[in-house]
Design brief:
This protein is mostly helical and 121 residues long. It folds into two domains: 83 residues, Helix Hairpins (Orthogonal Bundle); 38 residues, no CATH class. A hairpin with a 2-residue loop joins strand 1 and strand 2. Helix 1 crosses helix 3. The longest helix has 22 residues. It is globular.
């Protein structure tokens, strides 16, 4: 972990600050680490590792670690692309909370369907 010892481990802003410090420490902006195409490849790799955990029955701890890797990359995307991820999260949650659900192949699905009006897309 970073140098800050007194932090709220459940605080999204503290988590973002930690990722921002990591980017700064390794000079991501100057050295290509914030290139979004490169970051997309890294996220694809992490998603593959998550899939490996799920499909091969790996431990919950291993799954949590891989999900954390992906979260760190997503947070870094917000830094690299200069947008407020918390704001984007709450805006999107407000949108998806208005959607209905459907059962598709025996599983619940909450998404925007083309036969429904979706003003955001």
């Amino acid at each position: 972990m970073g140098k800050r010892q007194n932090r709220d481990r459940d605080s999204f802003s503290e988590m973002m600050a930690e990722v921002r410090a990591f980017h700064h420490k390794h000079r991501f902006r100057e050295r290509g680490g914030e290139d979004l195409v490169y970051r997309l490849a890294l996220m694809t790799e992490e998603l593959g590792e998550i899939a490996d955990c799920v499909t091969k029955g790996k431990s919950r701890d291993q799954l949590a670690t891989e999900c954390a890797d992906l979260l760190i990359l997503l947070m870094g995307n917000a830094i690299a692309a200069d947008f407020d991820l918390a704001e984007a999260f709450w805006r999107k949650m407000a949108e998806v909370n208005q959607r209905g659900e459907r059962i598709v192949d025996g599983r619940v699905r909450v998404t925007a369907y083309r036969d429904e009006e979706d003003p955001g897309h």
